[in-house]
Design brief:
With 98 residues, the chain is mostly helical. It folds into 2 domains: 45 residues; 29 residues. The chain is built from 4 helices and no strands. Helix 1 packs across helix 3. The protein is rod-shaped and about 100 Å long. The N and C termini lie far apart (98 Å). The model has no long low-confidence stretch (mean pLDDT 81).
Length: 98
């Protein structure tokens, strides 16, 4: 394996949100030497520092609001389906046609 491939693996790991230490441990387990890893990290830092993708709060807020609305709709539908009319029908002689 060449250093170009190592650099690509480092960038991918960092972009996925893994810590530098986690990426190093993974690469060591894959057979890369500590020196190669350190050298490649320096090259990655010099060319373009890689930052984690920020967590989009708006995305999670939209999902939460959608779930709340969906829950309310499901609740209303269930209430309509299983609605029981508890008002008794009052039958009096004046209301009955014979």
């Amino acid at each position: 394996m060449n250093n170009e491939q190592l650099i690509k693996q480092i960038i991918k790991g960092l972009e996925e949100g893994h810590t530098r230490e986690r990426v190093k441990v993974s690469l060591l387990a894959s057979g890369w030497s500590g020196g190669e890893i350190e050298e490649s990290f320096k090259k990655v830092d010099m060319v373009a520092p890689v930052e984690k993708k920020p967590i989009s709060v708006g995305k999670y807020l939209k999902i939460l609001i959608s779930l709340v609305i969906l829950s309310a709709v499901i609740y209303v539908v269930i209430q309509l389906i299983f609605q029981v009319n508890v008002m008794p029908i009052i039958v009096s002689p004046e209301n009955v046609d014979f």
